[in-house]
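Message: I would value a second opinion on how I read folds in token form. Give me a protein, with the fold worked out from its sequence. Write it directly below this note and I will take it from there.
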Amino acid sequence: MSDNDSSRREVLKRGALLTGALVPGALATGVEASAARGPFDVRDFGGKGDGTTFDTAALQGAIDACHAAGGGTVHVPAGTWLTKPFRILSHVTLHLDAGALVLGSPHLEDYAVEGEDASGESEREGVVTARGAERVAIVGRGTIDGNALAFHDETTSHAPPDFDRRFVRQGEDFMPDGEFFEHGPLAHGERPGNLLRVFGCRDVLVHGVTIQNSPTWTSHYNDCENVTIEAIRINSDASGTMIPNDDGIDIKGCRDVRILACDIDTGDDCIAIFGSERVSVTSCTLSTRSLGIRVGYTGGDIRDCVFTNLVIHRANRGLGVFVRGAGSVENVIFSDIVLRTTLFTGHWWGKGEPIHVSAMLWDPEATTAGRIRNVTFSRIRAEGEAGVVVWGTPDNPIENVLFDDVQLKVKRGPQSDAYGGNVDLRSAPTPEESLFGRDLPALLAKDVGRIRLRGFEVEWGEDVPAFFTHAVECEGFRELEVERFRGRQAQSTGSALRLVRGEDAVVRNSRATEGTDVFVESRDVTGRAVLAGNDVRAARTPTVPAGFGRRDHGPAR
């Protein structure tokens, strides 16, 4: 035997002894055999998989031995592997067989406090962590479960005070104090950290596994490079998707991330991107009581991201782009997406918007707000219980937004009267701006520089609430281009296109549908006013004021 082989055996032996995994004869028949043949089977390190014995030592022992041997695969066979937190090291693939359940401890004291550099929504450890590792993977058809209900109160609703009923359409009847809400979220005290945490890693693969029932963010990737997340299932089924802050995948400060062919069903956001570059998400199915895709909030800049071929259903919001701090968002494309949104009871952010884009300064650590610019929504088929919201501010307008081939149907839902007719901008600088009542068009654009609608179609369901108004309302705009629009207002009176306080407006090759009252209404619009090639035969009144658009191209047709 060479000196290197002898040294390797000694390292394996020490690792097994430190974890307490060795039993008489284990070195010869278990650890040594695993080292020779691979993979490293957790049963050879004392694992039971009976659901009552803590198997943390066996899991960590197998990982340590695999890493010490230069890398390889740790095999977790079918069984229930109850565990406290453990770590994956460089060059280790954790393979979970079908039928393997890695189950997090239900005891809070088993999750050590790590401080600020721990997890989103908690300062404690999670169940599985990789830190500063490279070439790591979690694969297979098994499951990692965070035991979320052990840390939540199934009889009480989570209701933080982040809005003021004085400004909500329903007033004191809106989400009364002390009520238990059908759709959650559930109340909680201190909780463990993110179920899966991958921090400061390179070349990461997560494939095929199910990750479920997390007490906080389900999976958190922070400061990582070259990450592939493929064909995984994330769910909060045990709680009926009622856990707050159980986001499916959170990408923070990462570069070169690919998320594909995943199925995610959570209470909170399915996929959230913060301060990252070159992220692509494709061919996923998403369901949530919060937001399907979140891009931005606070943190660093986000740029060069693509989201395509998605199905989003039973969501409180579909697609969202946010700035609330110093970080900017630019060069983002959403395309080929089918989505349906609905209003849920309880304290979930969002009020049924298929698409939401907003920018304002909220983060107390920032002195100026970042920008949102160059965002495209293309080939979208959306149905929801609210309209699209694009909301900038006069000192921070949203720049260059394109809606291309977007079909939107707005309808009444079972919660429309109790929750509808409000704009939700949480978190906002003041209570007046956070959550407030407002009449709603199918598309509301406020303080936007260069907004283009190409092939934008609006359809209204039967008996929509009276707070629904125009098809499109743009206020405080610069360079509005509308081409191939088709639609009308929600009620018997109103405007298909209402333009207020803007500069340069072009409406061409568009059509007023049956029942249109006013096709184009303008107030305080300066600069170019062009109407050309429009079919307004179904409109009672083509334009208000009557001369709008004539000074450049003659009367509307």
The helical segments are 3-19, 26-37, 56-68, 416-419, 431-434, 550-553.
